[in-house]
Amino acid sequence: MTVQDSVSTEQRFEREERSPARVSLSARLLAASGDVYDVQLINLSYKGCGIGNVPVTLDRSTPVAVELPGLTEFTVGRVAWSEFGQMGIEFEAPLFEPVFRYLHDKLFGLEEVS
């Protein structure tokens, strides 16, 4: 990896922190009630995610957990907003950078900064 590649990689991930990666992957939502729903992950950032095909509407700040593709544990968060079958989840703690990079690189593909 050259210095230029390293700079481009860092710029890409700094941009991803500000702008969620758009995706369409299967995920699961665990509600505080214990109910589990199959949903679609539609975007992902260090601090949260957006999900679609959500069959319930949950109140803002409701605790939830999301099973992200490729990870073995649920990621805990709270509902930021919920409407029309979509929901924004704010993670309790930001994803560790290596975890986000793994998800981005393995599941979403690399996108070079131009």
Textual characterization of the structure:
It is a single chain. This protein is an alpha+beta fold and 114 residues long. It has a single domain, classed as Beta Barrel (Thrombin, subunit H), CATH 2.40.10. The protein is 25% helix and 39% strand. The chain is built from 2 helices and 6 strands, in the order H-E-E-E-E-E-E-H. The protein has helices spanning 3-18, 97-108; strands at residues 21-31, 36-44, 48-52, 63-67, 75-83, 86-91. Strand 5 (75-83) and strand 6 (86-91) form a beta hairpin.
Topology, please?
Blueprint: H1 3-18, E1 21-31, E2 36-44, E3 48-52, E4 63-67, E5 75-83, E6 86-91, H2 97-108
Antiparallel strand pairs: 1-2, 1-4, 2-3, 3-6, 4-5, 5-6
At a glance:
With 114 residues, this protein is an alpha+beta fold. The chain is 25% helix and 39% strand.
Q: Could you give the count of β-strands?
A: 6
Sheet/helix structural class = alpha+beta
Order of helices and strands: HEEEEEEH
> How many angstroms does the end-to-end distance come to?
17 Å
Helical fraction = 10-25%
**Rg result:** 15 Å
Looking at the overall shape, the CATH architecture is: Beta Barrel
Going across the biggest sheet, name each strand in turn. 1-2-3-6-5-4
According to CATH, the homologous superfamily is: predicted glycosyltransferase like domains
Strand residue percentage? 35-45%
Task: Fill in the CATH topology.
Answer: Thrombin, subunit H
Largest sheet: 6 strands, antiparallel, barrel
Global shape:
globular
Average pLDDT level: 81
Briefly, what CATH class?
Mainly Beta
Q: Point out poorly predicted stretches.
A: 1-7
How many structurally independent domains? 1
Work out the helix count.
2
